[in-house]
Each structure stands twice: as C-alpha cells, then as structure tokens.
Amino acid sequence: MDTLLLKDDENGLKYSAKLIKNGEIVAFPTETVYGLGADATNESAVRKIFQAKGRPSDNPLIVHLHDFSEAVKYTSYIPQIAFKVAEKFCPGPITLVLPKNDKIPLVTSGGLDTVGIRIPLHPSARKLIELCGKPVSAPSANTSGYPSPTSAMHVMRDMNGKIPAIVDGGESLYGVESTVICFENKNSIRILRPGFITREDLLSVCDNVIIDPAVTEGIKDSSQKVMSPGMKYKHYSPSADIALVEGNIQKFTEFAENHRGEGIYYLIFDEDIDSIKLENCIPYGADSIEQAHLIFAKLRELDEINAKRVYVRVPEKTGVGLAVYNRLIRASGFEVIRL
C-alpha cells in the first residue's frame, strides 16, 4: 500500500472523508496530536485502527464529533455537569467519558459501556468529521506504545504502507493528547488523563475535581479495565531507556556528571543549558506549555540519534506540567530517581 500525503485543503479533506465513509482509515491533524480516524460505528473499519497501530483491543478509542450537540446520538445519558464542561471547553482539547448507546460498538469502546466524546478545536479536523457525516474514532496516529505524532512526518515514519492517507496540517498546537475526564456524580469530575485543560481550569465549572491515582502511579492490576486511553499500558516510549530524575539543578548536574557514557543523553529545561556543562544535553522547553508542545518530538529525536539511556529532569506536576509528567513517567515505565 502506498500511503498518500494529502494537503490540508478542501480536496484533501474531501478525499479523506470519502476514504473514511468507505471503511478506510486516515491520519489527520488535531490541535493535540495527529489522530488515526475511522467511522466509529463501522466495526471492521475500527479494527483496522487496532491492526495498523498494534494496539491492544481493550484500550478504548475516543470518538470525535463536529459539535457537542451530536453527543446525544451516541450516548445514553449526559449529566448536567457535562453540558457545563462542554459549554466552556468544547471545541477543545478535552474528552468527556459518558455512558454509550448501541450506535457505538464495543470494539470502539474497548468493551466498555462508556465512550469518550471529544470535539476537536482544529478547523480541519472538524471539517473532516462534518464531511464524513459520521462520528470518527481516532487514537493517536502512531505505533502503539511509541511517542505520539505531532507532525505528518511523524505519522509517515510509523504508518507508511499501513494506511491509505495522511492529511498534512503542520505541527500540532498543544503537543499532548486531550484531557480525559469522567463524572463521579453530579458534583464531581475525575481526571483520568491530564492534558492542556488542567484541574485548575476545571475548577471553574466544578468545585470537586479529582486526579485519578493512575495519572502518576499507573494501574496496579493488569486485568483492570480502564475508561481512558493512556492509563493502562506503557506509552509514549522511544527505543531508548528513559528515567526521570527528581532534584534541583545542582543535584541533577552532579548526577549527570557521574552517569556519563556512550549513548547517554539528558533532557533538561532550557534554563539549564548554562548550568550543565556536559555534552548530549537536549533542552525540551522553558516552561510547561513549551514542554508539552515539544516532548514527543524530543522523544522521537532520541531514537534518531541512537540514544540508549536518557535521564530527564522532572517537570512541574501542576497545571499543564502534570500532563508532561504523566507522559514522561509512562515513557519511563515509572522509573524515577529521587536525589
């Protein structure tokens, strides 16, 4: 199969919509990362996503809609608090886990009776969904377990020959996947996967916002079903071994000087460049927003330079920084060195 690289224009989107309506899968840009889209109601099309990615079948897919008003077609119940969240943050980088109805097959929901609903902000993603006339299930368009793609070229490296087409919409705006939330009750929100919309943001619509322990600790029981992608399996990981290093710049510098060798690299903050006088240092942003935008590209870069072992300065664990930390700790297999 020759994978086409399509322009992010009317012709490219119409051709992509035609492919999806005919049961094929297409990679397309969103404001978070590139998605691998299929008709969410077409079981055979959805299975092509799992096959192309090598994704475990119990890892649920997020369903993308053109407008939140369409959510009633694919859910059995929407609590009032969900409408408040949607009114403030949709379209945008947030996914709402809701009870599904029979229009969403179990293969799409990973065998669950819930479905994640998202209204992307990216204009081309919304136009594509509108042209399809169908809900579009779309995980990140990468090989399962590998860093998510934030450019069409990242997708091409992973999916060339596996899918019919990729829409090239340039670099993703935010760089990490959407925040995924569910509703404990009418007065409580639980964050299952952190993203660009933070706990602090959600407190503006709900007084009780809980961060699920799996965000920082992982799932202890491998047989446990999860409501969100990114919770259960090792994710976002390059071929290099990743370890997070927690400590101030002085301690990190001392640690790095004692852990040098061929193929060893260090992911550091931009401000650390003048402090750490070592080779193989790669900055990954000056603040949490920059780090979110760059982290997957930097993790992919490590494979391009044949890194074997990588020590990463731990980002902040609040705001958008929590999303960066979540991706890194999963990439490391929860290996944290505390100095």
Could you characterize the architecture of this molecule?
With 339 residues, the chain is an alpha/beta fold. It folds into two domains: 214 residues, DHBP synthase (Alpha-Beta Complex); 98 residues, Threonylcarbamoyl-AMP synthase, C-terminal domain (Rossmann fold, 3-Layer(aba) Sandwich). 30% of the residues lie in helices and 21% in strands. An eleven-stranded mixed beta sheet has the order 1-8-2-3-7-4-6-5-9-10-11, with helices on both faces. Strands 14-13-15-12-16 form a five-stranded parallel beta sheet, with helices on one face. It is globular. The chain starts with a strand and ends with a strand. The mean pLDDT is 94.
Strand content: 15-25%
Would you give the CATH topology of the largest domain?
DHBP synthase
Rounded to an integer, what's the Rg over CA atoms? 20 Å
* Most strands sheet: 11 strands, mixed
CATH homologous superfamily descriptor of the largest domain: DHBP synthase
Q: Looking across the biggest beta sheet, what order are the strands in?
A: 1-8-2-3-7-4-6-5-9-10-11
Annotation field: number of helices: 11
Please identify the structural class as seen in this structure: alpha/beta
Low-confidence stretches: none
The CATH class of the largest domain is identified as Alpha Beta
The first-to-last residue Cα distance is: 50 Å
Count of domain modules: 2
Name the helix and strand elements from N-terminus to C-terminus, one letter apiece: EHEEHEHEHEHEHEEEHEHEHEEHEHE
Q: What is the average per-residue confidence, as pLDDT, rounded to a whole number?
A: 94
Shape: globular
